[in-house]
Each structure stands twice: as structure tokens, then as C-alpha cells.
């Protein structure tokens, strides 16, 4: 059963509350669209439209809808009217609201969540087109409790508010802008996507958000759809075998039983909640990889599930302050599909996510270039300067390596790469101008950064830049006697390392240094390509006794795993195995590159997400 | 600097971790500075504000709370250019600044305490360094440990005063030397008597029956 409750409140008993013009008509329009089988496919005979209701009428409607019809597949609640935030809760105002008594006279989001938690629709969509609608995020404390968060009976909740907490929802010609933008997507006046038969509220919300931001409103989107199928409305742009929404949902009701355990639900919600504050790509990978594995026997299910998850997590990541967060989130999901690319459906989903990641990188690179134009020091942390003596070099090489990905992809596809190369070259020039000496090795987690960055510079014909960057990196490595920090170095070790670099004495950090390191292998391996063999040979004696390594694994399907098996840890020592660059080149093993472009691209992303693997196969291509 | 609205691969957790390690490092430096002048076992710490009172002492001196601070400016340019020396220089500057402030506080407080109790010797009025030293010995008490071991006082002198003191002690007459030794022995004996009286206030003291 798909049920909708649309509420619009124009008139209020209190004379101090201004009357609205368009709330009722917005609710009517939304109700019509949702209950139209061509668009929403919600059950017309059971769904409800309330115009300027009292609080008790609202509560009674919710009670009736959520109690009378057994199992609910999708429940969509729409509210247009006045709303406000008080004491950490968001309240929707009915006709008989008393402004000074909101907890008793208005409907809080918490009330709705408590009802939903008891009934457990497979997917719940909540849309609020009201002033301060973004304040509904304040009520998420109710949702985030264990008994409701990730409850196996509440697999998906999506909230969309057309205005942020401190904003007014705008009306234009008597209709709400937010509602109109939503209806444009539902009724096909605005393109969202054409690859799935149905649309999810998260993906529509992303589209609407972009539109509303242009007009000064900052919508809030929050939520996860943890079923494998979008459930909000039919996709008017899906031309392949179009079916009615109700039929689609019926067909998918069995298919989309993802079989997630309570622990998995909770882990996904936990990841979703911590994308802003406590982001760790490995945590997301370790959460989704077992889920993907359990769904792998049904490729179509897995493909749809990962696309839903990608929409939700990417949207969440886009709302964070870190412009690269959504890039990493998407990349983790795509890379986690590496073991299952034998399925066409999964490969298609992985390709779609990888393409979105590339698009995001290009957009973020533009933002970064513009930001650096306004503030050359924009890459510095705004607080705590000293940590950046260690973190900034990593941030810069990581940024350069990620921004090289679209370039490498375009070059590999032999498609028009001029624009991508130009953008990359501009960023490299910007960063060299301000941060030339911060493009330096401090940790072995930069090994892949150097490999991808230098490969891209060379492939783009930016030889001068490649020579300078590789030269400075090697010179600094020599100056530091080959000492680079391990990935898991802690704060005190990092402080000691900075002081050690200054003093040229690393005796205080012997336990924090990576041995063998992979950075030296990268620089020596690339030296002939960059024409730096003689330069490096001349100084190699300074690194006498330094050991370095390369991990090589011909099975690329495991390139996203936390620990890879069945590969080889190749180890060399300067002054024992290697005295000159050409000896390393001669000893270098034959590495068979992946034949599939997608595998190749995903392995590049994996190497940037997880700092203990280098995509050595790149030069084999 | 205002917090930026957007960031690129920010790592606030790592930044905080490193910053906390730096704060710990500053704490260690401060502890070294204090420990160099005051034995750790003679150092007490208090969490809350308010005057110090020792209810049994009628003339207990409260030097009040003195704040020590060190402000450092880091240029963006130095961070952007990966100038790692700035960390060492800043730590060095912190050590020097805090050391100066601590010494000023320490000797200022001792001076105020002595002034308030009248426990002051005027070297000029005494006529000579040696006479002043004798007068100082007469004024102080030598504490004695529970086992009777005397804890002789430390003498803190500036460079000029130290030279004068050394010169006076090198040229000390046998009579003056005998007087000083007599004062020292008397003070130790007084200290032992004081310690025995203190121990006698317990119901019993020590393990011997």
C-alpha cells in the first residue's frame, strides 16, 4: 500500500498569524500528482488531503492512515504552511495553533517519527514547504535513537525541507517555489534521470536543491533509502518498458527485500550520520562490503541498492563543508563493487557512480581554482596552523592526485581531453605558485598520490611540472634520509617528526617511520619516464640502507579490500639490492594491467582512498 | 581568522590530535621550567580560584594567582612554504617567555612574602656580604626530616651577587667561618628539637614500640 497525506494550511484562528495564499493549493497540487497513477501511484481511495486542519484533525488523519491499512510500502507526508523551531523541535502549525503553546497546539516532527517507528512503512518521505523547515533536522534526535534508527521495520526515511532553519519558504504567484520545483520533477517538466523506472525523493531533492539555491533558498535533504528500489514516484523520463508506479512497486516488493540485518541498518545510519563529522572511507567500505557480498547473488538487486545508497550518501556528503567529501563517498561505493563487475547490471551501476565521481571532481576542481584565486591560502586550515606542517603536504598531493583522475580517464578513453588537461594544468600552476615547497613527502600515505600525480603530469605533457615536483620530492626524501611517517602515526609522533625534519635527526621517531616505504619505489620507478635517472643516481648514496617496497597483485577485483591476499610484497634496499635506478627498472616485475577501463579507473580511486596500495599497473597500459 | 565555509580534504580529527600533542608538549616545557627551580615534591596545584589560607598559620602569605601567557603568531606564508623551523622556533620562544615570566613570579612572590613577614636582611645595612649572610642564617629555620636529616636551604643569587658571595666566602676568616658553622649547627639542633616536638604530638610516631 502506498499512502500519502498532504496538508496545506492557509488560515489560522489566531489573528496574529498572517494568512497564507498558496499553502492549500500547493497541498492540492501535490496530492493530485501523488495520487495520479501516471506520476505518484499512491492509493487515491486511502490517501488524504487536509486543508487548514486543526491539530486534532491532523493527528486523527495520521492515526487513520498509519493504523487502518496493514502493511505500508510507502508513506509520504507533505506539509505546506507555517512552521517554526522551538526548543530544538520543529513544529508544523495547524489552524488552531497557539504560538506561545507550540508543544501542545502544533504537530512536531518527533510526533510523526514516533508514529512511523511503530508502524514501520518500508519507505517514509516527509516534505515540508514551510518557513524554517530545515529546522526539522533538530528533531532528528528522535529518529537517531536506536529503537527507531535502523529499525528493521523502518528501512528508509527521507526528509526534504524547502527552506533552511533560518529561512522563509518563498511563494511566487501564490504557489510555493519549493513545491513547484518538486512537482516539476514529479510531473516531468524537469529532468532528473532516465535510467530507472521510478524516482527516489533523495534524487529529486538534489535536483530541486540546486534549483532553489539559485533563488536564494537553501533546502535541507536528509535521509537514507535502504531498499533496493526508488519508491517516491514514477520516472516520467524512463522510456524503456514504462509501467505504472503501483505495478512497479508490486514487482519490486519481493525483489527489493534487501535482507539487511539490524546491525547493518544501524551501521549504515551511523555512517550516514557521521559523514560530516567523523568521515573515514575505510569505515564506509567495511560497512558496505559485507552487504554487497550478501546481495551479490542477485546482481539487479545489488545494482539498485548501491544506486539508492549512492544517492543518499552523496547528497549527505554534498551538504558537508568539505568539497571532496562526495567524491570520496561515491568512490568508496564504486570501488566496493570491484569484485562484482562480471555482472553487466553491477558494472553499469559502478560506471554510473564512477562517472558521477569524475563529474564531481571536475566541479570541485573549478571551485578550488576559483577559491584559490580569491584566497591563495585557502588550502590552509582556518584553525591550528602547526598541524598543517604535516597535513598540508598530504592535502596538496591528495588534491592533485584526485584532480588528475578525470584527466587519466579521458586520456584512457581517447576522448576529448583538452578541457580536462587545461583545468588540471591551471590547478597545478595555482598550487605551485603558493605551495611549491609544501608539495613534499612527509608520510608514506602519499605514495599513490605521487604515482598518480606524476603519471598524469607526464601523460598530459606537463614535463616541466613533473620534473620539478618529482625532483623536489626526491630531494626532500634524501634530506630526510628516507624517513617518512607511517599512516597511523599519532599526534605526538607527528610533532616529533616535524622537529626531526628540522634537526635532521630522526632518532626520536624511529618507531613511527614507515619501513620499507613505497614512496621511494614510486620515485625511482618513475625516474626514467621523467628523465631524472641521472639526477636520482647522483644522490642515491644518501639513501644507503633505506628499504623500499612495491605490493603487486594481479587480481584487481580485491583492490578495494582492506587487506589483499595472494599478491607479492617486493622489497629492495638501497646499497644492497639497488645502487642505480636502472637496476630497479631491470628488476621490476611484469605487471599485467586490467583489460577493462572501469577496473583500471576504480583501482586508481582505490589507491587514493586507501593509502597502502599503488596502482603499479598504470605504466603497463 | 574566521572559519572557512568550505574546505578541501580537511582532516579536523588529525589536526586536533596534533594540536593536543603540541599542547602537551607546551605543558612538558612548563613543567621543566618549574621543576628546574622548585622540587616537584614542593609543588602543589589547585583547581579552583580564591585566596590560599592555612588555618593553623597566623601569618600565612597568599601571593595570589599570577597568569603566565605566551602569544605566538604564525605566518600563512611559513606554513604554505613548509618552513618546519617555525615549530622549533616557536617552542624555543615559548620556553624563553614562560621561563622569564615564571622567574619573575617566583622571586616576586618570595620577595613579597619576606617583606610581609619582615623576614628581610638589608645587605647594605649589615655592612658586608658576610655579615648579611650571617644575619640571613640567623633569620631562617632549617627544616629537619623525620629521621633527623637536615634539609639545608638553597641560596638563589644573581650573577653579580654570586661573584661577591663567592669572593667573600673564599676570603672568609677562621673566626667568621667558626661563627657560621656555629649558627648552622645551632639551627640544625633547633630544627631537630622542633621535629621531635612535632612528632610528639602524634599518639605514637614510627614503628618502634
Give a topology summary.
The complex is a heterodimer of chains A (621) and B (209).
Chain A: E1 2-8, H1 23-35, E2 48-51, H2 55-67, E3 74-81, E4 83-86, E5 89-92, H3 102-105, E6 107-108, H4 109-119, E7 123-130, H5 140-143, E8 156-161, E9 171-172, E10 175-176, H6 177-186, E11 198-199, H7 201-214, E12 220-225, E13 233-234, H8 245-255, H9 262-274, H10 281-295, H11 299-318, H12 325-335, H13 344-374, H14 388-413, H15 418-435, H16 447-459, H17 463-479, H18 491-503, H19 519-530, H20 533-539, E14 547-552, E15 568-573, H21 581-587, H22 597-609
Parallel strand pairs in A: 1-2, 1-3, 3-7, 7-8
Antiparallel strand pairs in A: 4-5, 5-6, 8-12, 9-10, 11-13, 14-15
Helix pairs in contact in A: 1-6, 2-4, 6-7, 9-10, 10-12, 11-12, 11-13, 12-13, 12-22, 13-14, 13-15, 14-15, 14-16, 14-22, 16-17, 16-19, 17-19, 19-21
Chain B: H1 12-37, H2 76-80, H3 85-117, H4 123-126, H5 129-139, H6 159-170, H7 174-200
Helix pairs in contact in B: 1-3, 5-7
Strand content of chain A: 5-15%
What is the CATH topology assignment of the largest domain in chain A?
Rossmann fold
Label the structural class of chain B: mainly alpha
Report the largest inter-chain contact: A-B, 47 and 38 residues
> Which stretches of chain B are low in confidence, meaning pLDDT under 50 for 5 or more residues running?
none
